[in-house]
Amino acid sequence: MNDPEIRARLYPLLQGGVYIDELPTGTTRADVVHITEAFMHGYEVKGDGDTLQRVENQLRCYAEVYDFVTFLVTEKHLPKLLLRLPEWVGVLVAEAEGSALREHRPAGYN
Question: Is residue 110 part of a domain?
């Protein structure tokens, strides 16, 4: 599963406010940012063809700006990614079957 397929599953979940794709954030870009009057939520997408090499830098930059941070990943990346993320970072899993995202853990307030 690739980035556009995963984003297509995310967009219907973003209620209220606006969302922006590829928003520059520090030295990186957030794949999707959901902005409402109450919060800014940064999302990072990791499809099957992506690597986890930039996760630490992405997380550092997102933590400086966003109220909530969530990584959307495929099953391929889940075990290694969980070792790199603090507990307050949310994780959604794009499973190969179906069209929904499974919440592995919710994002906590940063």
Answer: no
